[in-house]
Please model this.
Amino acid sequence: MRKQSPVVVRRALETVVGRWSLVVGQLLLASAVCLYAGSAWAQAKTVVLKGGKLLTVSHGTIENGVLVISAGKIAAVGAAGSVKIPKDADVIDVTGMTVYPGLIDSESYLGLTEISAEDSTNDLIETSDEIMPHMHVYDAFHAESELIPVARLNGITNAIVAPQTQDTLPGQDAFIQLDGKSANDMLLSRDIAMPLNFTGEQRRNESWEKRKFPQTRMGLASQLRQAFIDARDYSERWAEYERQKSDTTKAEGKKDSPSPPKHDLKLEALLPYLQGKKTIVLAAKDASDLQTAVSLAREFNLKFVLNHISHSQRVLDYVASLNVPVIVGPIYEDPKDFERYDAVYRLPAELHKRGVKIAFASYDAHAVRNLPYAAGYATAFGLPHDEALKAITLTPAEIWGVADRLGSLDVGKTANVVVANGDPLNVKTDVKRVFIDGRQIPMTSRQTELRDRYSGQ
Amino acid sequence: MSRVTRIFFPVIIGVSLQVCAQQTPAAHNDVVIKNAVVMTVTHGNIQNGSVYIKDGKIAAVGKDVNAPSSAAVIDAGGKYLTPGIIDSHSHIALDDDVNEATSPVTPQMMMMDAFDYQDKAIYRGLAGGVTTSLLLHGSANMIGGQAVVIKHKYGASRDAMLFPGAPRSIKFASGENPKRVYGSKDQLPSTRMGNFAVQRAALVEAQDYMRDWDEYNAKVKRGDNDAKPPKHDLKLEALADVLRGKLLVQIHCYRADELLTEMAMAKEFGYKVRAFHHALEAYKVAGDLAAQGVAIATFSDWWGYKQEAWDAIPWNAVISMRKGVRVAIKSDSEDFARRLNQEAAKTMRYGGATEEEALKMITINPAWIIGVDDRVGSIEVGKDADLVLWEGYPLSSFGLPEKVLIDGDVYFDRSLPGFGMPHYREGE
Model:
């Protein structure tokens, strides 16, 4: 494309506006802090976590370490004695505890559902059409969801929120932080990526009565192809319009200015992906679906990461040759009847062996808190422990383009930090403290309130 | 067909016949497991312990056991040995024949009639250390069908998988599921009032049926040759057995108020509730459950999937246990059945269950719920030799069954290729 379409120009403008409002927001926040210094949103004073075992993820384990949190950032990390403890800091003794970066869930439905069976509480997916790239989960994200405190009490501090998977193009993901004053605070990145689902589950073939196009994979693929071709044509039409307009302006005296093409939100939404500016999350399970989906993505030069690949054990070398990260799992998915019981459990280890970058996801809303256990279980099937922890911290931070801020205990990063009484990947481990943006999160949820109300009786 | 295949074809048949013949192991095993951390469940852990197995039973347990030199030796190498895991709520191996959802009262349904012994889920549970499961009717009906108890001897014949002499259990259900299933068809029940009215009416009908038969039998006993027998009715016969206390009553129930109502109804009609299943609000009325001796079979931390699961908390198991309720952690899912050890371990984190308490929730307690605690669920002399040897600590994210024995025979061995089953190889 020779010229930017107006769509892109508008997006750029929005970014500017967005930045400006961010600045204003920070000013407002600063004044709010002055007014309500005691509130949970206040930037707390400097906190020092002393004596814990620091799992930095980026530079190994530090026994008897010191971590300093200041102004929402990690200000210092190191062994006891090597780090200066600021005088006015709150020093918390975490001897015997493990300290690690906040965990990142690479696919969740947080904020899109409360009670699965109650439709009035669900904003998970628009199933009226299979091609819905103009759906933005940020429009539905419910910041006050009771599920969010439940998840963060187990150390999950950031997550991808995705629409559910019954459409091939169900809409665009957001990247969230699991604490903040409002949705605006918590939505760190809107439209961060777009799922393209090709698992067979998107076929409209539930029953004979309800069958309609596309009821086969051929249908799904042709529909996807048409959508991307339409989007390409659309951007060409706008480019052509821009050219004509510019020519008209130059050639003075000509009266007829060109009329602009009609706007189409669906096709506009596809453009950043078609231009390779944003990432497609390409979901497939069986090897054959994986290969079809990859061919499609290549046909349109899409930038992609892989998702699931649960039953692609026979093509793992091919997967490695693609040289893209894989969000793997859920590893609890049943193997096929012809597969050994651990065929899916072993996938993370097999991918790691082949040099593939992996990340884990809960693929859930209520069970987001169990994210570290999937990583833990994968270690029993051969994934090195360090890699398993990395797959829920630094690797997802890299995949989602936030590794400069999140994913490890490094100076300058956002202070999303977890303190627990043991191995973060073990089901037995109890999380004791969670910091998000340097704020110590109250260790309460609707569930702890119920526990406290009834356990004493 | 190529020449090679033709030549080998008879050989292949020969092999497969042999494999078939091997599918049920020898009836008399003679094995000693040495050098294990024996987690007996009922009388502590034995470091460097041994278990001697003879003819499918545990013949000796201790630091040193007297085993004949003929016994095959399994050196545990210091690994953990636990009883086989018992799943007190499962719907596997039923090929989706879980709910006869055409009437809210179907006690004459026998899950045995749907039991699909070739379902691979039995194998996958076995590989997760499960040796016994209670296969229940679903929760569409207020009164569902009668359960079947199986041992996970994948590859064995259908009848060899049935738990010999296990008591009969029947599934009741309440709450959202029955009212949704029948309400959506504009039938009774569509409310909780409707639910319990249906249940009460069925039990009253069964009382009348029982009375008619009692009267008839009394007449016959008196020598009244003109006495006309009442009509046999399978449905009422099953319910009469509930009232006679011949069936263990397993009730799917979530909300605290419904737990109380179900217990009141049991009292009114004179039967006992063996266990509440799911029972996600048991922690709110745990004292009442404990007073009635009713157990619960619950999830560790599943919640929020429907309105009646909204108050579920992961501390449910331990709060209820501390108030005297016998607690089991169950799967209700093909997935959870493969890692119940991890689910039980969560109770150590949520509420601080001890190792032994957590282990009880997937062994002796579910065994009691099924009514087979005198046979399985702990490592004790005289019990069935259903055992799991673990690689790694079982109550963690990391423990994996290395060998699983049922009735003294190794049914799963992780070190073997293919499916890891000594007696069964597919496709040969």
